[in-house]
Fold this sequence. Notes:
The protein has helices at residues 6-11, 62-73, 86-95, 109-114, 141-146, 159-170, 186-196, 206-214, 246-261, 264-272; strands at residues 20-26, 32-44, 52-53, 59-60, 77-83, 100-105, 123-132, 154-155, 180-181, 201-205, 227-241. The protein has 286 residues and is α/β, with parallel strands linked by helices. The protein folds into 2 domains: 6-124 and 237-280, Periplasmic binding protein-like II (D-Maltodextrin-Binding Protein, domain 2); 126-235, D-Maltodextrin-Binding Protein, domain 2 (3-Layer(aba) Sandwich).
Amino acid sequence: MKLKHWKLALLFSALILPVISCEKTEDSAGEGQDLQVKKIVVGYSVFKPITYIGDDGEPTGVDIEALKLIDELLPEYEFEFQRGEQQAIFAGLQSGKIDIATTNSFWTQDRENRYLFPKENLGMNIEGLYINKKFTGIKSLEDAAVQKLRLAPMLSGDGNHGILLEFNKRHPDTPVEIPLTDNADAFTLSFSWIAEGRADFYIGPKQYYELLVESETGELHHLVNDVGFVEFGSVRTWPIFRKDEQELAAAYDRAVIKLKEDGTLRRLALEFIGYDTWAYEGDNVY
């Protein structure tokens, strides 16, 4: 059995280059054998409740805990978690300093070109409109498109941008006009723009609305009377691998299938998010 030392792993997380080590394991017959264990650096950013630092100072969240369990199922690998900003993590994937990025990422064609997506997604987000509450008749993204509501400026290449591009492919007669910006704070600023009337809506995951606006401790809770949330579908989320980590991605896929089949991923969603996001897997998925 592989021994886990999470605090030790975090202490040495600055050593981000993959390292090969050797440790003793036991086979099914109880006989000792040598196993080459490959160190894998997992870059994560803070997107509570998906990935964040817990009260004990350790990385946690629905995706972090899933990856810890995946690590337990893969004795040939040892995961070390390293916190960083999303763009720095993606840069680390390309430079070889990071092996896996877990940032609640959606699939986009640009990311597919640059990185390696596994076959199995790790999570599901309930996707919806962050919308000015004066638009009481809007019940879907199609409604917003048909009524030509104004989308807040969006960062090009963002996962939500990819969702809107896909929506426009599916609805060529009533596309959403997508104003783009290079402002890295566009997501957070969108809530204020909507409340002020500079834009009518934005799109994003339900849990971020709950965390930022709906929660009484949310940093944008003062906008709760102006900005609401309307579900319109769901989106798969993925860990993203370095292009040359095909073998690791295949091992990850095998482990995730086990966690899906035994209900572990549903349990983690209920524990950290508060509802079973996997129940939305068949509903209007992007």
